[in-house]
């Protein structure tokens, strides 16, 4: 039975390989060369560069044809001459010895036909008729004892300028292929654990993933016996699954006990995972366990039965690793995180599958480790959206895709609008209008918040100045702008503010900058100097979301702060079903009292009901902000609100 066939085109042709064939070699028998009046194969005598030797006295003279025929017969390489129909017209002794054919020309021709390929092969016919330069094929055969042997079959066309047929040569390359197999085994297996390595894992994964799946391997010249997974009694499900496992804290083992102990631990982990795979085999198919590198392992499940099988396998792997390991005299405990992906094989590629497995593994680690996590398409879509937004943030600023909405800040004493908070929005061409929560975090990570912050600052100042100019003789409202921590550290915020005020003509007292409590508490050095410089310019500083961070009240007396903005979580507790004097209300009242004694004003966020506003006013809160008065709106709506206010 043939278990592997490859073909190398002649250097002059480059034609595609032929399909695999199979045959068995016959019993080896001595062969007698049939007599011929003239040799069918008439190769030219190779030039040697030497003068012919003089004839030996008394010796019988031999013609050049006799010499060539004798050399052909005694050549150590298996040779045969074929006619245009592919029949053997002459073969040497080595041909019969190698292929085990009988003495008859019919037996010789049958073996030759099996070696050349399927009947009617146009490539073979072209060589036999002299229309093709030649071909080379590799055949895997089994001899009479059932042993696999590899043969290199080559055919050279007949000479165009002389008699004779095509020359067939056969070489036994079994030893070379066996050496190649041993080298491949070393190259495809991890030297520490002896598990399949990353290269073999992805080779096996590619053979079962994608539209063609395992059936597609034959189309690319792969022989059925080399396919993975091997045929089993269970019908194929057409699905595929991967458990991508990473040891938690393995680096600490290497750093503490050394790489020898770390390698012993990896070997022990590999053994336990292999036992898990054997126990999880279904339908005669055992999951492939591989070490992908470092402390990463993977279990590949072809023809999986569904997510339940994969999650059960992942859970079993985690249980198997719970028992401590003995490595080089050390008793070690490790846990692992596992990303699980399972889907139809035709609906994915090897690259896509492993990308999703890697993402899911990251989720498992981010959720605390020591667990498995199943791939979630919706969660992944959100991640992909975040990556798209991250890539488009900076260009979007230049394209003018950001706009500002404004939410009124209302004086609780008389209900008038004393200021507005500028809130940035991203009008994304694909995802629509996005709130700050969708992109500010990423902007802070990659630093684009500095560029965006400059735009917000200048735009808000220009709009506040426009409202001031439009209402001469009336009290001007201030604009409050949020400032990110990176703007304080990574840019010259003082220069940016000064430039914005100068460019727009807005008085400094009409600008308020909001920084979060966590950004301000503990301020020293550069942040403190920045705040002091801004305050000296006349700009007001507000602490946003006060009460949710460090709440280190001692800093309030040292920071140049003008306003405390109470976090909305305090205000939401001011409900109808909560009586006055409850704990949160007492805390808010204490903070308002403290702020007033320090000369600060207090703004309450997220005010949604008239009762909340009334109770906040009763405990002395100065300003309110929330949907009770208005949601964030465009600048034209604020202008209308100011006209109504007079």
UniProtKB/TrEMBL annotation:
InterPro entries assigned to the protein according to its UniProt record, in alphabetical order: Biofilm_reg_signaling (IPR052155), EAL_dom (IPR001633), EAL_sf (IPR035919), GGDEF_dom (IPR000160), Nucleotide_cyclase (IPR029787), PAS (IPR000014), PAS-like_dom_sf (IPR035965), PAS_4 (IPR013656)
SMART domains the UniProt entry points to: EAL, GGDEF
Domain EAL: 386-646
Biased composition (Basic and acidic residues): 21-36, 217-229
Keywords, sorted A to Z: Kinase, Transferase
Pfam families listed in its UniProt record: EAL, GGDEF, PAS_4
Highest taxon of source: Bacteria
Region (Disordered): 1-65, 211-233
Domain GGDEF: 238-377
Gene Ontology molecular-function annotations: kinase activity
Protein name: Histidine kinase
């Amino acid at each position: 039975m043939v278990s592997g066939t490859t073909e190398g085109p002649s250097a002059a042709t480059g034609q595609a390989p032929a399909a695999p064939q199979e045959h068995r070699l016959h019993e080896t028998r001595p062969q007698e060369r049939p007599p011929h009046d003239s040799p069918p194969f008439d190769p030219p005598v190779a030039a040697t560069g030497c003068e012919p030797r003089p004839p030996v006295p008394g010796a019988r003279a031999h013609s050049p044809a006799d010499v060539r025929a004798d050399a052909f017969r005694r050549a150590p390489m298996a040779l045969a001459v074929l006619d245009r129909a592919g029949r053997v017209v002459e073969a040497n002794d080595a041909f019969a010895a190698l292929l085990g054919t009988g003495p008859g020309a019919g037996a010789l021709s049958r073996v030759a036909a099996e070696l050349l390929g399927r009947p009617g092969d146009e490539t073979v016919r072209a060589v036999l008729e002299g229309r093709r330069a030649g071909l080379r094929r590799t055949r895997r055969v089994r001899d009479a004892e059932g042993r696999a042997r590899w043969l290199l079959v080559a055919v050279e066309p007949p000479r165009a300028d002389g008699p004779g047929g095509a020359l067939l040569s056969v070489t036994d390359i079994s030893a070379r292929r066996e050496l190649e197999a041993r080298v491949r085994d070393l190259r495809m297996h991890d030297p520490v654990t002896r598990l399949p390595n990353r290269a073999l894992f992805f080779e096996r994964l590619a053979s079962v993933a994608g539209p063609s799946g395992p059936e597609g391997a034959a189309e690319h010249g792969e022989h059925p016996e080399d396919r993975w997974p091997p045929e089993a009694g269970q019908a194929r499900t057409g699905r595929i699954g991967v458990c991508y496992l990473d040891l938690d804290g393995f680096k600490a083992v290497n750093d503490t006990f050394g790489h020898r102990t770390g390698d012993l631990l990896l070997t022990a982990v590999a053994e336990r995972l292999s036992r898990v795979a054997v126990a999880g085999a279904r339908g005669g198919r055992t999951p492939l366990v591989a070490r992908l590198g470092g402390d990463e392992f993977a279990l590949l499940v072809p023809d999986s039965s569904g997510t339940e099988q994969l999650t059960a396998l992942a859970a079993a792997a985690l249980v198997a690793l719970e028992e401590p390991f003995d490595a080089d005299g050390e008793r070690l405990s490790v846990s692992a995180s596992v990303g699980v992906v399972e889907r139809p094989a035709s609906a994915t590629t090897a690259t896509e599958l492993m990308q999703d497995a890697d993402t899911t593994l990251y989720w498992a680690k981010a959720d605390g480790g020591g667990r498995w996590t199943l791939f979630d398409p919706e969660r992944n879509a959100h991640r992909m959206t975040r990556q798209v937004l991250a890539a488009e943030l900076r260009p979007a600023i230049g394209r003018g895709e950001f706009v500002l909405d404004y939410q009124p800040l209302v004086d609780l004493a008389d209900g008038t609008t004393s200021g507005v908070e500028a809130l940035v929005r991203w009008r994304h061409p694909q995802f629509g209008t996005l709130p700050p929560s969708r992109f500010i975090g990423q902007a802070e990570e990659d630093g684009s918040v500095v560029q965006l912050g400059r735009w917000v600052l200048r735009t808000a100042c220009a709009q506040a100045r426009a409202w001031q100019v439009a209402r001469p003789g009336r009290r001007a409202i201030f604009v409050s702008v949020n400032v990110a921590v990176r703007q304080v550290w990574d840019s010259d915020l003082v220069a940016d503010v000064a430039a914005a005020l100068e460019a727009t003509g807005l008085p400094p007292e009409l600008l308020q900058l909001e920084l979060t409590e966590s950004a301000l508490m503990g301020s020293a050095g550069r942040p403190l100097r920045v705040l002091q410089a801004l305050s000296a310019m006349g700009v007001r500083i507000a602490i946003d979301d006060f009460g949710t961070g460090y709440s280190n009240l001692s800093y309030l007396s040292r920071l140049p702060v003008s306003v405390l903005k109470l976090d909305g979580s305090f205000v939401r507790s001011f409900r109808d079903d909560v009586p006055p004097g409850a704990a949160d209300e007492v805390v808010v009242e204490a903070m308002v009292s403290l702020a007033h004694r320090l000369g600060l004003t207090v703004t309450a966020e997220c005010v949604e009901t008239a009762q909340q506003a009334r109770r906040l006013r009763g405990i002395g809160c100065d300003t309110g902000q929330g949907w009770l008065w208005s949601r964030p709106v465009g600048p034209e709506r604020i202008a209308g609100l100011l006209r109504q206010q007079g």
